Amino acid sequence: MVRRDKYSFIVKGGSTLRGEILPGGAKNAILPMMAASILSDTSLRLRNVPELEDVNVFGKILQQLGGSVEKEGDMLTLDQTGVNAFDVPYGLATKLRASVLLLGPLLARFGVADIPIPGGCDIGDRPIDQHLKALTAMGARCVKEHGKWHVAAAALNGARIDFDLKTVTGTENVLIAACCARGETVINNAALEPEVVDLARCLKNMGARIEGEGTSTIRVEGVTSLNGTDYTVMPDRIEAATLLLAGALTGGDVKVLHISPEILESLLGKLKESGADVSWDEKGVRVIRGDTIRSVNVSTNPFPGFPTDVQAQFMAYMCLGDSTSTIEENIFENRFRHVAELRRLGADISVSGRVAVVKGVRELSGAPVTATDLRASASLVLAGIVADSETLVKDIEHLDRGYEKLEEKLNSLGASIRRVPEEDECEVIC
Ligand code: EPU
């Protein structure tokens, strides 16, 4: 039987993207805020929440735990006063690694949390040792049994946490738990990502006492409970970066509205180096491509370094560079799965360990390709827009996890992309 929920994109190459576009709210800020709602004694209302599969799955987990999650337009209303379970369901947890974010809040509220052991995933191993180390320092006992991490604490106490490496969800997990722990928690080597800062702002609106977010030392003074609030989520910088790169790749002129250049600084620097004209004003950030794309080197790093979540899309851009570019992936060990698919489109890329060497080609040629993960999907769509003919991008469900109707946004800028059910794709391209 053909599954109806499988879709592909038919991307007609050759358009030049121009215009202004508004990104949705940041997925990676919304998910930890949804987790934080566990600690709120009244409703938490989040605005600027796009329709994303990851948000839907996280919502289903909260509902299975007994909570209430309602979406109306771009507003998400979360009321977890009814949560009466602390055992994150296996089926849903394995669909969404960010479910690990429930560990801290469930532990802080119930003194116990069970989550399925997260396995490796499509971009790397992704252990959670740092999350567990931090919660242990706060008084929790972490035991691995029956395929789960069982984490329990008679009382969660403030502590000094020294992360061995920068971890985004690790920082967020501890930050949320510390809000309702006894006494002060100091998080050293905290992640600096803007989504961590946005989470801290939301938590402060909920009554948390936090200082130092956006620096590598965050201090949290525990309070007895958090209250609900009405919070507008920051714009998605990765979606913004994807849209700007789409414009630059096609030789176009795209302005992303409501986004500040500070959170895109490393990308904008690289775009300038590649010959693009980058500017911004109070309305947003604009990128106009120069005559040629100069090949530039990129190394991914934690914020404010070049984001790993933009590496695949930037690689698509570099495929049309005027010479050779090296792209180093320092965050995840398996985040080059788009390379084989970009090669199908005519890209000249070789990989050795963490480094991809991209030799620019004159043009890409349309072909059937398969999306392997969220950001890889975006890079294939971008390459398809600039290819000489039609590209079929299969398994678009990866894209829907983190982009709201990306095809409609790109089409509004001049692209030509059609979403087709998997069973119809052959009529178009076979
Ligand atoms: N790490 C450990 N131990 C830990 C935690 C992390 O070794 O306990 C390692 C990871 O394996 C990785 C590095 O530390 O090598 C950084 O991982 P991090 O924990 O920062 O990643 P994450 O929190 O699991 C978030 C985003 C990812 C994004 C990364 C890096 C969310 C929900 N996810 O993941 O987003 O790539 O930070 O910025 O915030 C995406 O949106 O496509 C995506 C994958």
Write the layout of secondary structure elements.
Blueprint: E1 7-12, E2 18-21, H1 27-36, E3 44-47, H2 53-64, E4 68-72, E5 75-79, H3 90-93, H4 103-110, E6 112-116, H5 129-137, E7 141-145, E8 148-152, E9 160-162, H6 168-179, E10 184-188, H7 194-205, E11 209-211, E12 217-221, E13 230-232, H8 237-249, E14 253-257, H9 265-273, E15 277-281, E16 284-288, E17 298-299, H10 311-318, E18 324-328, H11 338-344, E19 348-352, E20 355-359, E21 368-370, H12 374-386, E22 390-394, H13 397-400, H14 406-412, E23 416-421, H15 425-429
Parallel strand pairs: 2-14, 3-13, 9-10, 17-18, 21-22
Antiparallel strand pairs: 1-22, 1-23, 3-5, 4-5, 6-8, 7-8, 10-12, 11-12, 14-16, 15-16, 18-20, 19-20
Bound molecules: uridine-diphosphate-2(N-acetylglucosaminyl) butyric acid (EPU).
Can I get a quick summary?
By secondary structure, the protein is of the alpha+beta class. The protein has helices at residues 27-36, 53-64, 90-93, 103-110, 129-137, 168-179, 194-205, 237-249, 265-273, 311-318, 338-344, 374-386, 397-400, 406-412, 425-429; strands at 7-12, 18-21, 44-47, 68-72, 75-79, 112-116, 141-145, 148-152, 160-162, 184-188, 209-211, 217-221, 230-232, 253-257, 277-281, 284-288, 298-299, 324-328, 348-352, 355-359, 368-370, 390-394, 416-421.
